[in-house]
Amino acid sequence: MSFNIAIDGPAGAGKSTIAKKVASQLKYIYVDTGAMYRAMALYILGKGIDPADSEEVAKACADADISIKYIDGTQCVFLNGENVNDKIRTNEVSAAASKTSTVKEVRRKLVSLQQELAASNDVVMDGRDIGTAVLPNADLKIYMTASGRVRAKRRYDELTAKGEDCRLSEIEKEILERDNRDMNREESPLKQAEDAILLDTSDMTIDEVASTILALKSEREV
Ligand code: DC
After folding, report:
1. The CATH number fitting domain 4-221, selected from 3.40.50.300, 1.10.101.10, 3.90.1720.10, 3.40.50.720
2. Is the CB of 10 under 6 A from ligand 1?
3. H or E segment at 16?
4. pTM for the whole thing?
């Protein structure tokens, strides 16, 4: 039986940084489900389809072949045979992914891929609906959040480090819009699972958050 850790929360809460660290300490696989939704959004943008046009997105997503491979321990997302890791972290793809991920057909396709990975591997999986919909029987569920300002600053630092030109106020506005869409959509909205543990990381260091999760994991094993 595999051990599954689910980490959900809004954009910029620190999920991927923490999930990667925890997974590497435990020698588990880190599954970044947001990257799969981003790859799908990239496909839709490449087809010239409006990400808000749910009907067209539902039709087109059937032809997108999305898969995951681990290369030197790093998760790589393949879209129709191409490793698209370097193309999915832009603001345009973020906004599009938040729209295309509201479509039922998109979710159905990616959720089954995520469930297959978790069934055959020990995983730390992060996203928006892992504890509520993808892995409702996960062994440990964390709902990670932080204030809107702190989350925007983290995203801003990430983007400027990559040389992207952006403004903090603009990022904060986009993050709040994205939260609103992710939390209020009909299909698997972002919400804390009843049995998830809430962690507000606004004033915590990465190491503090990671060791809190590792301690919770050890408790669960006893
Ligand atoms: O975690 P992220 O920023 O890479 O996610 C990008 C978008 O994908 C996010 O706005 C919502 C969507 N998403 C989702 O709907 N369900 C998930 N499990 C993960 C991401």
Report:
1. 3.40.50.300
2. no
3. helix 15-26
4. 0.92
